[in-house]
Structures are given as structure tokens and as C-alpha cells.
Amino acid sequence: MYLGKETSGNGLNKYACACVMAATIISAIFGYITGVMAGALLFIKEELEISDMQVQLVAGILNVCALPACMVAGRTSDYIGRRYTIILSAVIFFIGSILMGYGPSFPILMVGRCTAGFGVGFALIIAPIYSAEISSPSYRGFLTSLPDVSLNVGFLLGYVSNYFLGKLSLRLGWRIMLAIPSIPSFGLVILMLKLVESPRWLVMQGRLGDARKVLMLISNSKEEAEQRLKEIKVAVGIDEKCDQNIVHVPQKTRSGGGALQEMFCKPSKPVKKILIAAIGVHVFQQICGIEGILLYSPRIFEKIGISEKSTLLLATVGIGISQSLFTFLSSFLLDKIGRRILLLVSSGGVVVSWLGLSVCSAILENSQDEEPLWAITLVIIAIYILVAFVAIGIGPVTWVYSSEIFPLRLRAQGLGICVAVNRVTNVAVVSSFISIFKTITLGGTFFSLVGINVLAWWFYYSFLPETKGRSLEDMETIFGEDSKEEVQMKIQCNHA
After folding, report:
1. Residue 495 domain flag
2. Residue 83 DSSP SS3
3. pTM for the model
4. 378 shares a domain with 238
5. DSSP per-residue string spanning 382-436
6. Which of 226, 257, 288 is the last residue of a domain?
7. The domain containing residue 98 runs over which residues?
8. What CATH number is attached to the domain comprising 239?
9. Where does the chain cross the membrane (predicted)?
10. Computed from CA positions of residues 31, 438, 349, 376, in that sequence, does the dihedral angle turn out positive or negative?
């Protein structure tokens, strides 16, 4: 049933924006924990005298422990609420940071890192869900992209922490680096206790009175709040005319039970399309190749002929600046240009960037004499442009799109599945990137990524309808609509 667009009032609601910005602190903590470990490992290896295998174990265990957390985070948020799930994630980060900062031995450090990994799994799910459910359609793209912006800020703060705290004593420096997230984690617990719960979760619990109060705070007018409440009630299965403060909602709906069965056993046509679209954007976000660039950029720069360490570090800093700048820019474009167009432009730009990289890399690898400076310069510029194209579309839109298209009853657990797929694909890409370019050369690897991203562009064009400005409760209608090709086929069948 199409209920139209929600009224957006006069502009961005300040209280809704404050709620989302508070929730995105959890994403910044995740970004910091990931980024700071790159530098901290240098000092950990020296003091604790651990092997290279143990170094890789400390670095990789975060995503391994995030996987089971991803699978339970959705159900947890359906059961205890979005707000308390954010608080739970903050508590987990707090414990993990204290353990890592204490770190008297390798086993204790691993326990702390594993604990933080569980916090990552919860953070990846709950920040975009809470942001999407608090936001109005007119500003949902901007607000739901803030977790990704916050994550990139966290990365940069991690690198800054490496630089300044690395000057302290060996015993103290890395421990302070790893303990710092305990401060914002504790602050976030206090902050979230004072902010509101998602109105959509409250309606799922039958708490219409509480949901109405929240909607009055995060809407710009009483009319907008009532319209949003009406649409949410219909989505949950409550009579839109019902005005009781507490309504009985079946336990299965309140706790998210049966969501996995509905998605995978006998999904309806819209749910099937939604699942394909959501999982697809997460898979293509990872296999587009950007993780290989971000993680192994020093080795790539070294491979093309840059040997001086200071130049390597300076080139890598440029990648971080490009990523942060264009991710921030994307947050303002999502609600103006739209998700689908940004993805298509981003994906097309990535194809051209990889093509340029593959040609220049092939020239450098086949150069008989000294590597030509112009080709090295073009590779660096092409990498910056590649990172910019990913950051303005594929990166943030993946999280915005997948967090908004699932119906309310499936949203938390559906996104949990997507994030689990995202993490598994991430591990596969990161663990194989070096082996691949050693086997088929750097130019060959880049050229193969051209083909993968052409496929991604086709997927975005064929399977992703535009969601800009549409109500969360209207997503099943959008994905239930027949495509132009399906309509033509039906007309031809009818004529036959």
C-alpha cells in the first residue's frame, strides 16, 4: 500500500540530528580501533616480542570475532531495542579497550582484541539502523551516511594517535593508544541513556504512546509526526485508526522472530528483490578492490618504484585525506542526487580509474630502464581518484541503501546478514590481494578489477531502484513494482 511521502517540514530536525550524531560515536570508535592498530602493532611486536604470525593474528581477529556478533546483533536490537543495543556495544568497546590498554601479555591483548571485535559486529549493525529509523525521508540519506563519515574520522584519529603517542615510552605509548576508546565508550553510555528510542521499534512493541512522543521530538510538525506514526502502524500490521497507548503485538513481531525464515524459505517477490539488492551492494563494495588499495598502498607504491619511506608515508596520507573528504561530500549529495545515480557515477568512475591504473602499472612493470616519472605520477593520481570515486558513492551508499530498504520486521536481522557477508568478503579480498598480484602482476590484477566493476555497474543499474525521499514503510512497494522489462514481457504475453 503506497502511503506517499512523509512530510519533511521546514528542514533538518535538530533533535533527530543530535540523536544520530550521538549514535555515530560508536562508528568512530570502531574506525579508531581499526586505524590505531596499524601503528600500535609496531610497538607491540617490539615490547612483547611476538612473531609475525602473532602480529597477523592480532590484526585479523577483529573481523573474525565481528562475524558472530553480526549474526546476533540484529535479533538483539529487535529484542532489547536499538538504543540499548548501542549502549551494549559501547560497554563491549569499553571492556575491550581497557583489556587492550592493560595488555601485560599477548593472551590478554588477544582477549581484549576479541572483545572489541564483538563490539565491532554490533556497531556495524546498529548505527545505520538507528540512524535510518530516526531520520525523516528528506534527510535520511544525509543522516544515515554519518556513521560512515564518523568511521573515517575515527580512522584519521587513529593515525594521528599513532604519530603523537608513538613518541612516548615503549611501554606506555601503545597502551594509551589502545585504551583511549574507553573514554568515548563510557561517555556514549551516559549520552544514550538520555536520548530517545527508535519510534519504529516502539511501535513494534505496541507502545504507540511512547512512539508518538518520540516522533513529536524528531519531526518538524504535529502533522508530520502523525503521518509518520500512521505509516509505521500499517507497516507493523496495526490498524492505522488505532489510537491506544499500548497495543498487543504478537511476540514473533516484537522480538523479530521468523525474520530469517521469511527471507530465505519462502520470500515474497519484493523481499527476494530486497535481499538480492542488499547483499549485492555489500559484496560489490568489497570486491571493487578498494580494500586492497587502502591496506596495501605502501606496497603498491613501492612496487611502482617509490622507495623513499617519507614519500611512501606522504602518498598514503593523501589516500586518507581523499577518502575522508569525498565521504563527507557524499553525505550532502545523497538526498539531492539520489542513491542510484551516485552509485552509477561512482561505479563508472571506478571502472575508468582501474583501467588507467592497469595501463600505467603495465608500462612500469614492462619498463626496461628506470621507471618513467610520468607513469609513477599518473598511478598515484589515479589511486587518489579511485579512492574519491569509491568514497563518494560505493562506500557510503552501500550502508545507507541496505539499512533503509528492508521492511521494519526484517531490517535488523536483514542488515545483520549483509554485514556478515561484507566481513567474509572483506577477509577473502584482503587475504588474497597480494597473492593475486604476485601471480598475474599488478597491471593484470588491476585489469581484472575493471571487469568486476563493469559487472557491479550493471548490477546497480538493473537491480537497484531509487529510494530517495521515500518512506521506509514504502520500500516493499518500490521493490514490488515491475521493472520496464517485466512490464513489456507481460504485455507481449497478453497480446500472444
Report:
1. no
2. helix
3. 0.74
4. no
5. HHHHHHHHIIIIIHHHHHHHHHHSS-HHHHHHHHHHHHHHHHHHHHHHHHHHHHH
6. 257
7. 14-257
8. 1.20.1250.20
9. 12-33, 53-72, 84-102, 108-130, 142-160, 172-196, 274-297, 312-334, 341-364, 376-402, 414-434, 440-461
10. positive
